[in-house]
Amino acid sequence: MRTVVFDLDGTLADTSADLIAAANACFRGLGHGDLLDPEQDALTAFHGGRAMLTLGLSRLGIADDALIAAQYPVLLAAYADGIDTHTRLYPGAVEAVQALRAAGYATAICTNKPEGLAETLTRRLGIRDLFGSLIGADTLPTRKPDPAPYLAAVHQAGGIPARSILIGDTETDRKTAAAVGVPCVLVSFGPEGAGVARLAPEALLDHYRDLPALADRLLGA
Questions:
Q1: Which are the catalytic amino acids?
Q2: Against a cut of 0.90, is the pTM above it?
Q3: Which parts pass through the membrane (predicted)?
């Protein structure tokens, strides 16, 4: 079965504001106030909690791996409390996934967000039932760009890796697809915008309405 595997943050949904809010909650708890900006630092948000903590503390001249490790679970707890406060699905995402499924595709999510948080978010957004599998950062011993999570997502959705594509928004997704040997489609409406073209994916996606036809082109009928 042909399968389309989606990243979550920055691909299906813009989660940056809620991620930044969680990091800023950590900084306030440390007595520093808000150190990250929801708009200017959105791209860092999609590189994960540790990246946000590192960036914020660097603005104070602090480089402390132990402090970052200690604050990471605090950040996750803060994020869980406000996981869907500002998060929104990108326009056309639901309709595109529904169209793929109607055309006989399997659909899956492979994300570097912890599985529990990804399950909570997709259910709150009302999209969990649209995907045959969901593999998170801690589902397996490894995470993207290691190929194992992607392969697990495809298999659990009932698909065949050789007939699959990855829809993502970052270099991590590009490297994952390369490691598996499948086409990579990067969205140009994500955190980096059209700048993702520098990663030379097999295709760029400017709007979700174009995805069904693009999937047909890359995977055949």
A1: 7
A2: yes
A3: none
